[in-house]
């Protein structure tokens, strides 16, 4: 699952857990994006801190892992490269064991996939799982049915944008992010200015 995770929140974790359940996944790897090219906010957390929040948020679930592949690669993140790097790391670590790959993304982001670099390469290397998020109408984004699944997850109207706004406004974020993530937001004084 790729995302800016700025910060990671319970919407991400519920979506991952639901996808893991539906597709019987052994692992879900969360990959915070590197240098962001589509979001321009001066208060966003540095990649190392977004990675740290992702590690903390995934610590309690044995299926969940965080990866540095995107934050360690210079330049903007492209999903085709994320998948390639994860697949070669897995091949090395497992001695060439076979694996089935899924890329989990919000259904909103899925609709943009045709605009991503190398959509064919992405569809060749992973099954795409689009999770619905509240307020998003599930529409067929016109992708090959055998390579794409849309799943509905319990409605959670949580977004990183809303969490950042809440922090800036002094509103509570308790129960919207894991407590360890809330502690890191405090500790690094993230998102304080609007
Ligand atoms: P922002 O508000 O900054 O865009 P975000 O909450 O969308 O942040 P991202 O890091 O952009 O978080 O999201 C990573 C992926 O998780 C995206 O594919 C996004 O669509 C999906 N996602 C985010 N929030 C939810 C949610 N509450 N339920 C399901 N999927 C979500
Ligand atoms: Mg988003």
Strand order of the largest sheet: 1-2-3
- Report, as a whole number of angstroms, the end-to-end distance: 27 Å
Radius of gyration: 16 Å
Task: Enumerate the spans where pLDDT stays under 50 for 5 or more consecutive residues.
Answer: none
Rounded mean pLDDT is 89
- State the total count of DSSP E strands: 6
Heterogens = adenosine-5'-triphosphate, magnesium ion
- Treating each run of at least 4 consecutive H or I residues as one helix, how many helices? 8
Taken as a percent bin, the fraction of beta residues is 5-15%
| Secondary structure: helix percent | 25-40%
Shape: globular
User: What structural class results from the helix and strand content?
Assistant: alpha/beta
Question: Secondary-structure element order, as H and E?
Answer: EHEHEHHEHHEEHH
Question: Features of this protein?
Answer:
194 residues, binds magnesium ion, three-stranded parallel beta sheet, alpha/beta
Walkthrough of the structure:
- With 194 residues, this protein is of the alpha/beta class.
- Helix content is 39%, strand content 12%.
- It has eight helices and six strands; from the N terminus they run βαβαβααβααββαα.
- A three-stranded parallel sheet has the order 1-2-3. Strands 4-5-6 form a three-stranded parallel sheet.
- Helix 1 links the parallel strand 1 and strand 2.
- The radius of gyration is 16 Å and the shape is globular.
- The two termini are 27 Å apart.
- Adenosine-5'-triphosphate binds at residues 3-6, 11-12, 15, 105-106, 108-109, 131, 133, 153, 156, 158-161.
